[in-house]
Amino acid sequence: MKKILVIALLFSCTLGIAQTSLPEISLKDLSGKEIPLATLSEDKTIVVSLWATWCVPCIRELDTIAEVYEDLQEEMNFELVAISVDDARSTRRVKPAVMGKGWEYTVLLDPNNDVRRHLGNPNVPLTLILKNGKIVFRHSSFTPGAEDQLFEEFKQIAGE
Amino acid sequence: MKKLIIAIAVITAIQTSIAQENKGTFSGGFESNSQWYLDDSGLVEENPNGFEAPQDQLRSNNYFTLRYSYDKFTAGVQYELFAPNPLLGYFQGFQGNGIGTYYLNFKHENLDITGGHFYDQFGSGLIYRSWEDRQLGIDNSIRGVRIKYDFTDYLNATAFSGNQRVGFEISEGTVTGVNTELDLSTALDIETGIQLGASYVNRYQEYTGPNDNFPAAVGAYSLRGDVSFDKFFIGAEWVYKEPDAYVESNTPSNTNLQDGRAILINTGYATKGLGINGTFRAIDNMTFYSEREAAGNSFLLNTINFIPGYTKQQDYAVTNIYVYNPQAAVIPVEGKAGEIGGQIDVYYTAKKESLLGGKYGTKFEMNYARWSGLDTTFDLSNNTYENSLISFGDKYFEEYSLAIKKRFSRRLSAIFTAVHTEYDGQVIEGKDFYLEGNAFVIDALYKFNNGKSMRFDIQHLGANADRGNWAASTLEYSFSPYLSVYATDLYNYEKTDIHYFSAGGSYTKGRTRVALNYGRQRGGLICVGGVCRFVPPNSGLSMNISTNF
Known about the structure:
The complex is a heterodimer.
Chain A: H1 2-14, E1 26-29, E2 34-36, E3 45-51, H2 56-76, E4 80-84, H3 94-101, E5 106-109, H4 114-118, E6 126-131, E7 134-140, H5 146-159
Parallel strand pairs in A: 3-4, 4-5
Antiparallel strand pairs in A: 1-2, 1-5, 3-6, 6-7
Helix pairs in contact in A: 2-5
Chain B: H1 2-21, E1 25-37, E2 58-70, E3 73-83, E4 96-108, E5 111-118, E6 120-122, E7 128-130, E8 132-133, E9 138-139, E10 142-150, E11 155-166, E12 169-183, H2 184-188, E13 193-204, E14 217-229, E15 232-248, E16 251-271, E17 274-284, E18 338-350, E19 362-373, E20 376-379, E21 384-387, E22 395-407, E23 412-424, H3 425-429, E24 434-447, E25 453-463, E26 470-478, E27 483-492, E28 498-509, E29 512-521, E30 524-528, E31 531-535, E32 538-548
Antiparallel strand pairs in B: 1-2, 1-32, 2-3, 3-4, 4-5, 5-10, 6-7, 8-9, 10-11, 11-12, 12-13, 13-14, 14-15, 15-16, 16-17, 17-18, 18-19, 19-22, 20-21, 22-23, 23-24, 24-25, 25-26, 26-27, 27-28, 28-29, 29-32, 30-31
């Protein structure tokens, strides 16, 4: 118990200077092209979602947003980048799944989970809002209705 | 304790200096999975007296990671505490606490050097993959040195050497590997995507026995290529492993050596609204361990390569009872020398306003998977065998699944799932049955105003063997994106009359998630990403906390 307290203490003293950006690496998109993460939110606000083909709430979230994606793009320049954390077993499923579902998102592959580890190994889905390269909003898990809150947050952050 | 105080002092010092200079960033996370096991006389799955809680009723697995990057350097450490014992079903070598992994990484322009523990994989992982999965209790990172160099934007190479993590110890054998990858499409500036790769991985473990020809070092080679043009893609990977000792009950045979082979082919077609993916794999004696004696261990310790079950990861309680567990080990007395098979996935979206699509469009997901043993002739007295890599023996597993995702209104949507499974219990679990089952699931979701929603499912599995028929249902209510509660029951109504009920809730806020569950856990294979771990049936109260920063 004592040790857990110590861990909690360790944790609390690092909170003040938390990770506020994505790692400075490149990930491949579905056509095999390397995309540097640093360029994703240059001078703009975007949503980044960490997901996997085997994660039911992740698919729910991305399917839900996909239904209104075009409208949101027009309304508020909404943009979503979906980073798949599918590993060696399922990474090859990503392209057929994304295309089959007709998603219009930019999809990047992180089969070695470098981004996920950089962010402290969170559970997926993890939804981030990035503005000019900085993480300004973070939410993990998805329940229906959470998308409305995400759109509100996005609107507010993008408008600031 | 002393170490921790030092750690706190160091962190505080670093923190102060960062605060002053405003340089470098911290990130990290904390995850705690605890369970308070409770006696349960009704859980008569394995023991007629029910589940008897272990002496250490309260057990907890905790992981604390910290990463600090400054300029070209990144340093990281993971402290782990399993107190007083790891959760049931985890490797006992995790008992206690300590620094699980640590590393220092330097990255500058084309050079990337890591000293300490690292995770990586070559190709699909069929020759080498080190990874961590806390749910499965796997951390087979390698402790040593890893160097990656990009010669150009289309050619890179990686080399590493080290010992594999085993609980809080490291492997006796040393693992060394080199890998190179060439992106021909970038090199030649052509539209067609062509990527090539080659790897060599070696396991060295001292041998002091009587056989002069016994290999202390065993190497494995792999070649692979991926081609994509327009909407098609195809990739193939071939692996050969040099002769290694046959191991029976942790004892290597001094005279009995056998080599291993594997082939993996993946192909598909993807266009908007339709995606098809096919995977084929054949493996013969392809398990590869950083210690010979570890062959066949049930905790997946010392595994150098990655052989997942290429089947669909099912989403529901009744569709997760009979899951395929890959059969990579050579066990002549059981007639096993490898496996052959594959799967096909089809994703299709019927457009809005089309016949199948209706007002909102309809999504279809189909999967077919089939796995068999290799057609093999065994010489049981010598523990040897002969076979061809492309040959079909007895069927181990076959599955057809279909999921239809349909929205009925702005508020109501549903998923309909049907799965037909054939499962050889003898081969997969060592139990005397062969099962055919049909599962049906209806999963409905209703969205209220203000982020409130309700999910309800009913599930049934009709099976002709083992424990027969099962039914299940789940009710989940979300008060907001942050707070949700659920209750579920999985009921084996035909043979054992056991209810596996559980109820709980979770609260998520920003970086932190807390979940509480009370109830029973069915014994059997828990599979994550096609890799399975055996857990005993149990009962109790569990709490999971995770946070990241």
